[in-house]
Design a protein that fits this description.
Length: 209
Amino acid sequence: MAHRVFAGAQFTVSAPRLADCPAEGPPEIAFAGHSNAGKSSVLNRLTGRRQLARTSKTPGRTQALNFFETDAARLVDLPGYGYAKVPREMLARWGRHIDDYLSRRRTLVGIVLVSDVRHAPKPFDRAMLDWAEAAEMPLHLLLNKADKLRRGPASARLYAVSSEVNTYSSASVQLFSAADGTGLEVLEEVLAGWIETDAFGRKRRGPTG
């Protein structure tokens, strides 16, 4: 059910500021992550469209909030964070944009946080987990690029990260591979659950900042 919902995604607008975002309407699911984590590839895998979200060999190319419309929800690609070759003032500006959106967007129903399974969670990942917990906002951590590890090391990483994530009441975690589709059905079920819960009147919340 979930994959059919997301398969019809269409790009609608690229918003450099909160004021440029489309009018609030359907539930929105934000995709966040450190540059190089494969966030755009995750969106492409989820929607079944290879070029929906542009991927680049130069991390940090997503410099605005990109909105993709489906029949049931909007998918929002947030700027990738933390690429060293991006000027410091640009990083600060991106951080403000992300904070404005997460804190003030009333239609946000959940966050997918994309991380590279080969590396331990970064400070940005932990900051997102802390924010989601404070906001009582569902957050699903994708340990992407699972295809790059053998099953044993991948499972060990999942166990280690789960031990940390399970201390947060609003968060969950799974292995994923945008390259071969590992974990796609699990992700679809999580997102469909967020949309269904919102449809039944879950109060949309978030810090007012």
